[in-house]
Write a structure and sequence with these properties.
64% of the residues lie in helices and 0% in strands. It has helices spanning 3-14, 26-38, 46-63, 66-74, 80-90.
Length: 99
Amino acid sequence: MTYRHLLALALPLAVALPVSAAEWSAQAKNEFVQQCVAGAPAGYEDAQLKAYCDCAADKVSAEFSEAELQEMSRQSPPDPAMQQRLVNASSSCGEKLKP
């Protein structure tokens, strides 16, 4: 399973967090990472998942404005173009899942 599946699981959390990583409280980022790890498919080590989820939290918060995150939360399912941006924003994090 690819990192894209992990990111899809973390998307609902992204909409509840502040705009940039600098604005995220330690608690908010920790919750994002915990939910990302908890929702991950089997087959990855905890250290890999944590590294991926930490990276994804930083990338997503830097790429999306608060308005965009709120827009995604109202759409069901989210707009495919927005989903692709989400995947693109965190694509460099996929290396964290390699053994």
